[in-house]
Design a protein that fits this description.
This protein has helices at residues 18-26, 63-67, 73-83, 92-99, 112-130, 149-158, 170-179, 195-202, 215-253. Helix 4 (92-99) crosses helix 6 (149-158) and helix 5 runs parallel beside helix 7 (170-179). The chain has one domain (18-220). It has nine helices and no strands. By secondary structure, it is mainly alpha-helical. Mean pLDDT is 83; it is low at 204-220 and 258-270. The chain is globular, with a radius of gyration of 26 Å.
């Protein structure tokens, strides 16, 4: 049984509500465009199977109207953040830096940040289960690596395939709830941590969810992710081509395509 099922997280959760989004769009707490003043190495890869832009997403936004014709990565993310704001307690520059490495129109589930965070949350789940979600069972030198809070906010902005930009993917939402980590996305002064996480991080100087930010290391990891992603896409294309060839061969060999040799006319002597 999940020990966090009935935990009261309070008004601030994984995703902002409609009123919060409307207020941030109308009166942003910080000018996110300031985050674009520093140079970023934008991901300019072309995506073979782009995400579907939703006409009426979970916040009532017509994504097609805003982004359908935008091809420049910086302009794309500036436009996206104008209707899917970064919440004020996150580091806007770090969020934009993470977003800059995701190609425009890429499906969130195919992005490097989604793969990284789902892996980290899977490891956290295994950690908790190993010690039966009892902090007293956890050795002093054992602490899980939690997802970076700015990475989580960037992932929320990239959004869900069905609900659109601004809504955390269903997979990561389930993982956060199962691991009792909703508090990572709450304002620091309003975080409601379950007892397990209070004990884990009260006994160490580690700052949960605030990992060291090594940009060069991040970019090396990003390069590996991109290479792997390109390889996976190439394999998928090859498999599809092979399937097409196989279907064509099946059609040619099917009975209706068999060519019968006409019988020779038999002549009888008169």
């Amino acid at each position: 049984m999940n020990p966090f099922t009935r935990f009261e997280w309070g008004p601030k959760g994984i995703n902002p509500d409609q009123q919060e989004v409307d207020e941030l769009i109308e009166n942003p707490n910080h000018d996110f465009r300031q985050a674009f003043h520093r140079p970023y190495r934008w991901n300019t890869n072309n995506i073979n199977e782009p995400r579907t832009l939703i006409k009426d997403n979970a916040y009532g936004i017509d994504e097609q109207d805003f982004l359908e014709d935008v091809q420049d990565p910086q302009k794309y993310y500036e436009t996206l953040l104008s209707f899917t704001p970064i919440r004020p307690w996150f580091d806007a520059e770090k969020v934009v830096s993470i977003l800059s490495r995701v190609a425009i129109n890429q499906k969130t589930s195919n992005s490097y940040i989604h793969r990284l965070i789902t892996k980290e949350l899977t490891d956290v789940m295994e950690f908790g289960q190993r010690y039966e979600w009892n902090a007293d069972n956890v050795p002093e030198d054992k602490r899980p690596r939690l997802p970076d809070v700015n990475g989580l906010e960037a992932l929320r902005i990239l959004g869900d395939a069905k609900l659109g930009f601004g809504t955390m993917t269903r997979k990561v939402e389930k993982q956060l709830l199962a691991c009792g980590l909703v508090w990572l996305l709450q304002p620091p002064q309003e975080r409601r941590k379950p007892t397990f996480w209070q004990k884990i991080f009260d006994s160490t100087t580690a700052q949960p969810g605030q990992l060291l930010y090594d940009e060069e290391l991040e970019w090396r990891l990003f390069g590996v992710e991109q290479d792997v992603g390109a390889l996976v896409e190439a394999v998928e294309r090859t498999n599809k081509n092979l399937e097409d060839v196989s279907k064509k061969m099946d059609q040619l060999l099917s009975p209706k395509h068999e060519q019968t040799t006409p019988k020779r006319r038999q002549f009888r002597p008169e």
